[in-house]
Queue: 3 jobs
Job 1
Amino acid sequence: MTIKKIRRIRFASLTMGLLSFLLLMSCSNNETNKKDYIKLVKIAKVVKISSDVVKQYPGVIEENEEVNLAFRVAGPIQKIHVNEGDFVQKGQLIAQMDSRDYEIQKAAVKAQVTQLQSEYKRVEELRNRKSVAENDYEKMLAGKQMAEAKLKNANDQLYDTKLLAPFSGYITKVNFENGELVNHGTPVASMVDVSILKMEINVPASLYIDKENISKIECTQESIPGESFPLELYSHNIKANSNGLYKFYLKHKPTNNSKLAPGMNVSVKLTCSNSQSTILSIPVNSIFRKNGESYVWVVKNSMVTARKVDPSSTITNGNISITAGLKENEELVIGGLNLLSEDEKVKIMTPSSQTNVGNIL
């Protein structure tokens, strides 16, 4: 064998040895990296499903109060100060009666009272001197008191020639015109108080029993789309009607721009809550199948543990409900479920910020 061939054989052997060494080192590094690698996982929390039940009933809006306004005295109307549809404040003048007869009556009674009060002072002085009989004194006292009572009545009648609003509200009807003669107690105008709107609904016994769990009451009106109005249950009837229904009394405090008005038909929605609900919701992509059963990876202390769950068949917005196997706020892995193993250590991926895209800041 020539020297040249020997050199070629030695060079080839050296090359093969070097390649084998590099390959061995590469495999060793791969095994080390594989052992040190920790998977990055996304998580989602177990949430409790709201078990609120919404029930609807028809209702009709009513005013808080409606009254007929009438004079307490009779006579001709001097002036009507309002028109139908006007808003009036409490104490505002609605109508004025011709008060001349009542002014004369007051003046006559007042003169009589003045005279009797003067005579009473003289008799009282004589009584103090023991110069008048007690019976005469008592008659004078009674006469003075009766005259003073007549004067008070005359003042009241004069005051009653003005018809004032008993509360703030709207004039719905005016029955007379200026100059017409009205008797006392005859309705001159009508007005309503809409500072509070009321309505009544009839509910079954099941809701009457569960009324303490009503968490929200509101109403909607079909001619006012996209808006709902809060209601308050302020009373109820303890006895059912002939149909076995119980009456709920509701009220609404309207705002300055409220669109609701008496006479409108509304749909009343009552929300009943069940604080004892144990129905939980988890993302669908947190469930994987194993041996024909459903499981999830629960993350605790940066380690994953498989846990069996019993999901429902209804999926809503990517979530599914379960009734057993988990607790509220437990953390579950979502995605890449088949790449994990029992008691494997993982690292939770930090959620991306909506305002710091790419985690630049």
Job 2
Amino acid sequence: MNPSPMESLLEHLENLPTLPGIALKILEAVKNEKTNLDELGKILSLDPPLSGKILGLINSAFYSLPVKVTSVTHAVKLLGLNTVKKVALGFSLLRLVKPKADNDFNYAEFWRDSVMAAVVCRLLAKDVLPSMVEDGFTLGLLHEIGRLALNQSMSKQYNLVLKERKDTLCDYYEAEKQVLGFTHMELGGALIRQWGLPEFFYEPVQIHHFPDLIEAASKPADTLGKILFIASQVVEFFSGRKKSLSLAAMKTYLAKWGFDRKIQVDTLMEEALLHIKEISDLFDLQLEDDGAYLRLIEGARNELIHISDRFLQELVAQQKRVESLKDEVMRDGLTGLFNYKSFHYFLNLEYYRAKRYLLPLTLVIADIDHFKLVNDTFGHPGGDEALRCLADKFNEALRTSDIVARHGGEEFGILLTETPIADAVMVVERLRRMVETLVVEYEGKVIRMTMSFGLAFFHPESKLSKEELFKLADQALYEAKRRGRNRVCVNADSGGAVT
């Protein structure tokens, strides 16, 4: 069987980046002859990729330990100073990553949120799972490592995820599922499992956004998962856009899981802020002033008094707002098809997906012949009715996996995903005949139309850029018009024969 996209990614995943501030401190530490294991362990334990590297090493078959090591401090002591120095120095020098100008991933924000989750997990574990306090810290630190891995290994595609999240206000995992077909939770869990950590580490990471699944997890993964879920809500409150929902989730699940007997939401956030400030210098974290955070917490206190009664109502209202925004941003108001901006977003997405996974892709640009005559004869309302009817017919005729958009005016764009050129020609010829025989009734009159179609094919080994692919399809459309309209033409330069 062919490996899944995520499995292929894991097979070729390079080492993960480390934050420059941490890397420099490691370099200073390893150069200092007086550096001891405790000091180095303290630095390493605060860095997600390095923590994974050290834990992966100590849990490898080379050491064959009878039990899994889950504490970085313990791992450092077992490995010894010289070994840890080499690993840390080599990893830092090789993978010191500077953010690219065309990449929107916020490295500083990622580390700040990771450290905050680790601190909150430690605070929670002290009260509800004291035997695994350090495990809780490591879990919080590593739980979003999948996002870092995705950005490191497929930055162009992950930029599409970031754009999807920004445009639709959805969560990272929702945007990842839409764009990539899998999530950072799945990848993060698989990565942690590769490092040799036990099930109670990777299982919570794989499901930490889904409290119902956490409750069904095995022990102690269920308790660690609950701790991680609460911690992620604290992070979301401080840095996200859904503060009311995060507060509601914290209050609801602390009570549901019986944690509220020892933990109060506002107290937890105050303690988290105190601990974050203590280690902010080591991490070069850019924190807001104390007053800004304290005002957030004070506002949370007031909000928590009333939040339970309207939790569900706000959740439903937010979901409606998100769906409404998606339609407004991505859809054409007249036809309900995707608009120009959305079409080029999907073109970018499907182009890189086809390129990475060696899939065929056919791009179609279509144009209604002599549409000005339709508007002149029946008026613009008649032309609008013709466009709406045509859009409905396209939606009926194409697969749900295909993308059809109103590219502008009377021009349409179609992406036939995973479709070889021979199959694409048959599909488009069927569309051409459908338009040719379509009868649109408007105010007792009949509107008839024909369309010209230009195709360009992206085969798995192609070196065409997406801009070149679009240009070839546009040239094929021009050729169809030149040959008399109401026909399908394929651009020969994209790998097909002109028809």
Job 3
Amino acid sequence: MTEHRFTDEELLAWLDEMLPAERMAEVEQAVRDSASLRQVLAGLIRRRDQGERSVGDVWRRERLTCPSRSRLGSYLLGTLEADLAAYIDFHIRTIGCRFCTANLYDLEQAAASSPATANRRRRFFESSAGYLNILQD
């Protein structure tokens, strides 16, 4: 823990914009107000840029727990298995992943902006259901 109220991990997550919005604002205000906190950040950036990385750093920076955009789309459509849908819900609503939340919002906006989307979705599911019925016969 630094001499401030933020851990080094939180400060690095702030740099990568991976904290919930409220915590991002809190860290940003503290960074603006504190020269010593800016020095701590500069040291963390140097250390990170020199290649000193933990498994956790790689995990967070490479977004290994984030679902793909296509999985987020399937989540929106309600076509995922219950366990995977529950994970994505947890990842977005509880963890508060800003990256995935932004992706999901973008997908929602794209779906809402196209009046043909609902019709296309209905036709897709009808054709898939029909195809599966043919295979079962």
